[in-house]
Amino acid sequence: MSGLKREGDHVHRLEALRGITPQQPHDARAIAALAANPGCTRRALMDGAGIDKDAAARHLGFPAPFGQSPFAITRGNMFEALVKADGCAELLRMLRELLGLPVAEVSYHDVENVGAHLRHAHTRALIDRAAREGQDAGTLYDHPLLSLDIAGHTAYLEPDVVAFQLGGRFHIVEIKSFAVIDGQADPSAVAAAARQAAVYVLALRNLLEELGHDPLKVSHDVVLVCPENFANRPVATLVDVRKQLAVLRRQLTRMTTLDRLLEELPDDLSFDLRPDEDGRPTRPVAELADALRRTTARYAPDCLSACDLCFFCRDEARQEGASDLLGRQVRDELGGVASVAEALGLADGTRDPAEGQEEIARLLRNAERLRRECLN
Amino acid sequence: MSLLTSLARLRALDEGIAQPIATVRHFHLSQRPMVFIPLKLSGEAAAPLAAMLGSDRERPHLFVVTQPRNRDLRFAWTAEVAGVLLPYIESFTNDTETVERRNADPYERALDAPQIIVPNQAGVAFTRLLGRSTRFRSTEGPYPVPESVPLLGRWLTYFAERAAYPGSSLMPAATEELGRHWASGQSGLEDANLAALLGWITTGPSDEAEDPLIWPPAGPATDPGFDAEVLAPAIESESAERITEALRTQLEPTWRLMWQAIDLLAALPEGASVAQRWEQDRGSFSGMAVHISEGAPPQARRDGAVAAAAKLARMERAQAAYDVQRAYDDPLVMAEYRLTGEAFAGEVVETVPDNTEGEGRSRKLRPLVVIKTDDPVLLPPGTSLGTPQRRGQGAELVEAGQGLVTLKITKGMGRGKTPAPGAVPEIGERVCYTSLTDDFQGSPALPEAEATPWTHGGPPQEYVPDDEDAQEEWS
Ligand code: SF4
What's the predicted TM-score (pTM) here? Predict the structure, then answer.
């Protein structure tokens, strides 16, 4: 397997966790999603082992509720094609305005022309040369292939993005098809785009560092290109992704220090789906479910929009009667009382507060008294 | 969310059925509401796909854009929707009452106002975009549209903006209103699913609510599976009938849920302050109707700096008033303030009805009341208090401790030497007092629109839509 570093025990342990299941390559979206629930061991382990969580969830009988409409896909492709048409002519026009490009001539470099297997090496060489020469002319690199180390594995990132160099600084360009209307866009869509772009910024910075250049040559301001208003005309905006970068780095560090998590695992634990020749999982469902349950999850309703395993983990939380089901806000309000039965016991006075629970118990008893009084 | 609501959610989860978090209805429910369920084409900002709407639950109108990418059909669709919504809206403008005002001319206020109910917040957001994409359209020039299209655009913009105004009932979202009155045993995120939330309130949770084959999403986004397997082939076939019937299957279940939600909410008695807020809605609606009839231009794309600040200040005041009014109207909402020590309730154990302060002519009646309460009272002496039981009165906290609170009534006692009958609570009466009062500072001194400082963009230009607006692509 290319890019796999055979160093450190934990890589072997992760391989063992995966068994004969082929490794699921990480794309930027998946890597960005890693940061969605940093506290979850189950997810960290499955991602670290490179297990296809979507396939696992399907096999477990809890398919993820994510799907993309063919209309949305078509629209996205159409818009990207429009922005990139004629050697990115439209994109160049916008960049000139947005970044105050002084040069009339901008060169365009399509890395894809060299063929897939060479793309990464070619990208490296191009970026290296650009950074070395510090050339001032703006250059667009279309279809670059970047890489990022995820828990000992190299993930290749095939961005629909273009790395753009100007005055010795690189900018990541991210093309999205959600609309900016009168200067405003759906905040959750912008946030997702920023998280994804941060992955590319980090990958490009790592690349520069490896090549002995200053990683900060990659700007933390990414260029977000979206359709404006109700037409197809693209508009570019700068988005600062420093915050997303910090979160991403923290999570990746955590993934590379999986050792401690791995040490605590029983030796026979495996997430192997045991796919047959056609790739269909053959592992008995109960066995796989059992294996997953032996790792600690940290379910929160946010998982419903971020993790393929969400229905499985929600079901588990239901069976455990976990107050996590109701959302972080409720959980915080309960001051860490984790189970529904415990919280209700404290409210009813049928359970004595443990040490440190006196205050929340008093509040819950009071709340219960008030509810009863008002509803009778 | 308060701890009280959190507790209700826990109880709901434990008992498998939603729990009430309100004892009265906190919004106005029209006798003749208009239900509006729009659907949009996935991946597009505001490309309408279909809508089911109407004020008669037995006879919904269904309008479909049979080729969603065809811009003429979109405008034709908008005109069809306008054909139902505009007569509904205009039917409220004729019957009015004259309202006298201090320092201003009297004005005419509609006796009743339209109410357009959408399934969820996303429905409001889509309504806003639909308004934005149609209100600048021109009835002449290169891309003429029917007159009703820009007119509907202005009304939709108005309703969607009003939906953001705290306490307004002109465009409620069903999931929001249900969620304000019941706590389900799921997260707030999951409450945005109308079928799931109604399930919790009526029969208890079921996985069916999340199965798009049984309960299609309440819009405006459609189910991606439906898009791929049903809608795309239907559009491919170019059969208008097939597309229409496909979309009917996606809208009809939600139509039924919407009326179920309305019935549930109608069964709650209306809160005491609801009529007052609806009166503001009626006034606002009449203002908009006059605006339109006088030929004012469509709403600007963006508010000017002063208008935006003024709006924000107005919304903050409305939010504060709405919070206080709900607490006064509903003991279960007031209980949240009792829990945090900002209100207390209990039984009157002692009174001095003829207590007075001052001498001679400035002598005033200040009855004393002692209340026994189980609530934790965290208010310091001297705090001004109000009470839902006697809204015209004001009181002041004298002392509190050991489950007893002494207060004196300072406002609303009249000029008599002895209190009017019933003005002072009797021993044994249950009363509630709170530091929340519906008495807010006036509007912050904002410059008039013409005097916008240049730092904020100078005086706003009156918005005049240009040809570019009217011809803006809608692809
Ligand atoms: S869905 Fe499960 S595995 Fe995924 S992040 Fe949430 S708790 Fe962890």
Answer: 0.90
